[in-house]
Amino acid sequence: MDLIAETVTLWQTYQMTARTVEHLSMFAAALSVSVVIGIGLGILLYRRQRYSGSVFALLNVLETFPDLALLALLIPFVGIGAMPTVIASILYSILPIARNAYTGLISVGREQIEVATAIGLTEHEVLTQIRIPLALPLVAGGIRIAVVFTMGIVTLGGLIGAGGLGVPLQTGIFNNIPEIILLAGAWVGLLAVILDGVAGLIEKRFQRRYGEW
């Protein structure tokens, strides 16, 4: 009972409910934009495949850039708070979504394309009715990776005034309060597992419907 009471006290003292809402709001905004840009970029590179190597090489370089350094570089342009956190999360999450979308689009079997062409589908119809649906399992896999990336970057946003669950974590670290570090860390981890599980269920649903790669 003491442990439960202490946990409730910590939860209320550090406004964990409000921090969770902030955290999930930034997470949802960043992931939504990442999905739109990532899928759009994957389709664009499928149509302009000669640029795919250069674009993915650039995204790979960006992916290896230290996340804290990227946050610091964004501050002079967009200030501190949620904006640089969301932008950094988007930049880190585009690569897995775009790469999986591109790979899914170019990997559709030749026989399926020949059948679609034989029944009179145009190139645009083949893309929208054959390639994109069949690529959805891979796209979902890329989004699942992006979920983990986004959760991690949003947590770092606590360092630059973005709010979210990074705030109690930073407070615990700077003031040497292991209880709140453990509580906030465990809660962030649990949220990541739950969101990854939801993304995994969506991925499996697409795999059952369109086939597993």
* N to C succession of SSEs: HHHHHHHHH
Tell me, briefly, the overall form.
Answer: elongated
Main sheet specs: none
Report the helical percentage: over 70%
Structural class: mainly alpha
Mean pLDDT: 92
Span of the ends, CA to CA: 49 Å
Q: Which percent band covers the strand fraction?
A: under 5%
Q: What Rg do the Cα atoms give?
A: 21 Å
Number of strands: 0
Poorly predicted regions are none
Assembly type: single chain
Number of helices: 9
Report on this structure.
The longest helix is centred in the middle third of the chain and has 34 residues, at 123-156. The model has no long low-confidence stretch (mean pLDDT 92). This protein is mainly alpha-helical and 213 residues long. It has helices at residues 2-13, 16-47, 52-64, 67-78, 82-106, 110-118, 123-156, 166-174, 178-210.
